[in-house]
Amino acid sequence: MIQIGTYTFDLNDPLVIGALVGAGLFLLILILLIVTVRRAGSNAQAAQLLATQLGGLGHRVEGISNGQQQLFGGLTSVTEAQAQQQAQTLKLMEQRLAEVNDAMGQNLAHSAQRTAQSLGELQQRLLSIDKAQDNITKLSGDVLSLQDILSNKQTRGAFGEIQLNDIVSKALPPDAYAFQKTLSNGSRPDCLIDLPNPPGPIVIDAKFPLEAYEALRSASTDWEVNEAAKFMRSSVKKHIKDIAEKYILDGETADGALMFLPSEAVYAELHATFPELIREGFEARVWIVSPTTCMATLNTMRAILKDARMRKESNRIRRELSLLLADVDRMATRVDNLDRHFNQAHKDISDIKISAEKAGRRAKRLDTFDFEELAEDPKVVPLTPPVG
Q: How confident is the model at residue 68 (pLDDT cuts 50, 70, 90)?
């Protein structure tokens, strides 16, 4: 870089290099001329020739000077153009940088907003997961509690009784059944349905042979299966025998009873694997029911109760119907009377309207002193002087 005054020239620029080369050539020619003049100082012709050459060289030097000035002006223009281009480039770069900053700011704001929204949604999902986990934990506890209940015979019996009570209370009216009612033999069935004779009150007792069923389900060998089947048969037969002996009483209960199994799985297993137990129950007049079949049986009992109550209340119903017919007859008579009153009132109103029209016509004639028309009316009553 070469600085001349306020201008700076780049040595890599071809124009600057050309200008420097021209200046060097000019100096070299000038030195050669001076040497030549010194050597040919005595020769006038040489001096004249030298003067001519010097004149031509002066013109060339003048041309080189003009070229240098033009080159300097071109370099100045190029420098100014480069300065302007650099200024425009800097301005454009600043604008672009500002736009990029704005875009980055907006993108960061949007990204922050989306991140916050995503975090909020994630928090809600985590809350839902925590709630579901709590429900699962609670359900696990309930399952464990149910297993504890079913593992004990007394609590298992209470579980069957509660389920039976719920089904009966939903299917029948409150006055149609009784829980834990004592019979004449001192036994207390889980539920006694008060059906009319026949068939009479019928007992429903809950039984749950869970140990036998679990042994049958967990058996893995033929011997275990046979032993579990024997256990199931003995358990169900004992339940059938107990119900038949305790809850079927001549003259007090119906000639049959229901054994309620609070498990659909146990009920299905009996029908699928032990049909002889079902037949034995039929022979002992003990019918085995599950929650579903018990509900269907209770609906049939409800229809029987409704029909019996309808027959029982038939006299009262007929009496109420007679009273209703009498009320209808009285109402019809009163309607006829009211109709006559309306007709008479209509006739009276018509007569009143006729009288009013006549009175209006007479008043109009009197107002116009039209006494001749009044005299022609045959219905006019003449005025007579009072008898003294």
A: low
Answer yes or no: are the C-beta atoms of 224 and 244 closer than 8 Å.
no
Contact (CB, 8 A) for 301 and 193: yes
| Amino acid occupying residue 103 | A
Enclosing H/E stretch for 289: strand 286-289
| Closest C-alpha to 196, from 310, 82, 99, 85 | 310
Other C-beta atoms within 10 Å of 298: how many?
22
Rounded distance, CA 327 to CA 352, Å?
37
Q: How far apart are CA 226 and CA 185, in angstroms?
A: 37
Beta-strand pair 177-179/191-193: antiparallel
Instruction: Render pLDDT for 359-380 as a digit per residue (tens, 0 to 9).
Output: 777 777 776 665 555 555 555 4
Domain residue extents for the chain: 2-121, 153-318
Task: Give residue 157's pLDDT band: very low, low, confident or very high (50, 70, 90).
Answer: low
pTM of the model: 0.43
